[in-house]
């Protein structure tokens, strides 16, 4: 019995000692430090992960925002390029219209209209083109058409809203002309691309190379002094009385935009 009591007392003492040691450890500064580290480590990891997730989310948003901004800037750049091209076109167009006005004032034309070239002859661009004026604007057959100060054709067909112009290169184009330097009257006839001829030039007529061939009021309703072309070649064929005179015309169809229609 005494032995059992001793064992019980011994166990109680051991328990109390263990409890005392445990309490001492729990309240010791070392344990507190270890406990803080043990508890703080997972918290630190969690906070770090959350911060990384937040940073990644911000990166994605910033990337998307930058991409959208880049697209908008590219779009604005293209619009600015288009606007610049438009301004350049308008500048060229205004310059062309200004020259037409100067030409009108120089010759003192009373009735003139500015027309836009809207198409060319389907058979041959050399022969003629179409303008956006017709009977509604008072256009008539025989009205002369001028570009950059040069005669380039006459109206030969008129619709209500559009008209066809026969160019000075057309083989059917015929007009009385005069040479500028010597004043010789000749008969001009269209021939081919940038080319015409002077018909019935007599041997005694003073026709010179590089002389300008221009319109005359002789046997014509066209105003005086509008350049048609330049004399480039003079020759005489054996057995023929008249000389062959080749003229380089000023009509160039590939850059026509606006023309001046001089009404009769």
TrEMBL record:
Keywords in alphabetical order: Cell shape, Coiled coil, Membrane, Transmembrane, Transmembrane helix
Residue ranges of coiled coil: 56-100
Name of one Pfam family that matches: MreC
Cellular component per GO, a single term: plasma membrane
Keyword Ligase attributed: no
GO biological process: regulation of cell shape
Domain Rod shape-determining protein MreC beta-barrel core: 117-263
Top-rank lineage group of the source organism: Bacteria
Record bears the keyword Membrane: yes
Segments crossing the lipid bilayer: 12-31
NCBIfam families from the UniProt entry: mreC
UniProt protein name: Cell shape-determining protein MreC
Annotated source species: Sulfurihydrogenibium azorense (strain DSM 15241 / OCM 825 / Az-Fu1)
Classification lineage: Bacteria, Pseudomonadati, Aquificota, Aquificia, Aquificales
């Amino acid at each position: 019995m005494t032995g059992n009591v001793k064992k019980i007392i011994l166990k109680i003492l051991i328990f109390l000692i263990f409890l005392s040691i445990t309490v001492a450890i729990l309240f010791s500064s070392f344990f507190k430090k270890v406990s803080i580290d043990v508890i703080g480590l997972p918290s630190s990891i969690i906070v770090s992960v959350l911060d990384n997730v937040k940073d990644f989310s911000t990166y994605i948003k910033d990337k998307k925002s930058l991409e959208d901004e880049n697209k908008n800037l590219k779009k604005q750049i293209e619009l600015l390029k288009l606007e610049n091209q438009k301004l350049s076109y308008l500048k060229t167009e205004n310059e062309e219209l200004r020259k037409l006005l100067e030409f009108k004032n120089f010759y003192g034309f009373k009735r003139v209209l500015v027309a836009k070239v809207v198409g060319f002859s389907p058979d041959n661009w050399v022969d003629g083109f179409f303008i956006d004026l017709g009977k509604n604007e008072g256009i008539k057959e025989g009205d002369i058409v001028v570009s950059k100060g040069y005669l380039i054709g006459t109206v030969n067909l008129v619709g209500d809203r559009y008209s066809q112009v026969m160019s000075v290169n057309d083989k059917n184009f015929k007009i009385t002309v005069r040479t500028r330097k010597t004043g010789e009257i000749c008969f001009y006839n269209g021939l081919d691309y940038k080319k015409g001829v002077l018909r019935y030039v007599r041997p005694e007529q003073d026709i010179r190379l590089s002389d300008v061939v221009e319109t005359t009021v002789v046997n014509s309703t066209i105003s005086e002094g509008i350049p048609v072309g330049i004399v480039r070649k003079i020759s005489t064929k054996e057995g023929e009385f008249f000389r062959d005179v080749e003229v380089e015309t000023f009509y160039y169809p590939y850059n026509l935009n606006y023309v001046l229609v001089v009404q009769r």
